[in-house]
Structure formats: C-alpha cells, structure tokens
Write a structure and sequence with these properties.
Layout (H helix, E strand, L loop, with lengths): L2 H20 L15 H25 L16 H22 L5 H11 L9 E2 L4 E2 H7 L1 H7 L7 H16 L5 H6 L4
Helix pairs in contact: 2-3, 5-6
C-alpha cells in the first residue's frame, strides 16, 4: 500500500476512534455529515467526468496540452471534496469552452467562410464552412474526424481551430488562395 494511502487510512481510523470515545456513553459516533450517499457520490463523479471531458475536448481541438488529473472522484466519498473537484473542473471547462469560441484569426476565418460555403456544407470533396478536403481534415483534424465525422458536422469554432492549426503549421492562408486574396490575407 502507498504511504499516502496508508497515512490517510490511519488518520481516518484515529479520527473515527476519537469521535466514538467523545460520543455520550462511549457509543459509536455516526458517520461525518460530509460522507455522501452512493447516489450523491455517483452524481458528483459523473459531473466531474463530464466537465473534465469538455475541458480536454477543447484543449485537444486548440492543440493545447491536456490538464492532468489524479481521478480523485474514484478514491473518495467525501461530498465536500467531491464538490470542490467538480467546481474546479466546471471552471476549467467554462474557461476552455470560452477560449475555444475565440480562435486567434477569427475575423479572417469568418471572411473566408463568407466566400466558401455554409458551416454545414456536406458536399464532397470539400466539407464545412472552410471547405476542407479529406486530406486536410486527416492532417489537421484527425481527432474531430474520428469523433464526429467530416467537417460539416463540426462546430464553427472547431472548424476555425483546425484551420488555425494549418496556419500555425506554416501553410498560412494558402489552402484558400482565392478567398484569402479577396479577404486581403494573401
């Protein structure tokens, strides 16, 4: 057993023994109020997983390293601790989602989209508002291609972030030569 886990178990044992001795007549004390029912713990853990998945999704779309986790929701039934973990991931998810809605060259992508097509354009060989070919989607949006299908099924912000990846990879606005020229980007 790991030393931290052993120390935690020992601390829990000592505190429960102290509560039992302090109770009237030496009777065993009731469990602390912060220990939740199985349904409460399960609901909080599910919420943590959902917020963490949202955070990681947007981090992956934006090309950022994903935040680490110790999966504490699997190791505790303390409602106060679980609530704090849930609130932390909820804040992280909100920040990642908000950042995901503001790609660095948003105005440029919106200009290109105006001349290219609808965000939901399903017509091959180019999909989505930025008219991404299958080769382009595989090269820069493999995660979204696997998760959601072709670019016409991606959110507009996701399409812009994938185009942003191509821009950062050195392609610039050259995959959209005519429309980028119309927008004054080339």
């Amino acid at each position: 057993m790991k030393p931290n886990r052993m120390r935690g178990l020992l601390l829990a044992l000592v505190s429960s023994l102290a509560l039992a001795l302090a109770a009237p007549g030496g009777a065993a004390a009731q469990a602390p109020e912060s220990i939740g029912t199985a349904a409460e713990v399960k609901a909080l853990a599910k919420s943590i997983v959902r917020h963490r998945a949202t955070t990681w999704h947007w981090q992956r779309v934006m090309g950022k390293p994903r935040l680490p986790t110790k999966h504490m929701e699997r190791k505790t039934t303390d409602l106060a601790h679980l609530t704090a973990i849930r609130d932390l991931w909820k804040r992280r998810a909100a920040r990642a989602r908000a950042r995901g809605q503001r790609p660095p060259h948003r105005a440029a992508w919106l200009c290109i989209k105006r001349y290219e097509g609808r965000w939901t354009d399903p017509n091959a060989p180019y999909w989505g508002g930025l008219q991404m070919s299958m080769q382009f989607q595989r090269a820069f949006g493999r995660y979204l291609l696997r998760k959601k299908g072709t670019a016409n099924r991606w959110k507009p912000a996701e399409q812009m972030w994938i185009a942003e990846r191509a821009l950062r990879a050195g392609l610039g606005f050259h995959p959209w030569p005519n429309t980028a020229r119309r927008c004054g980007l080339l």
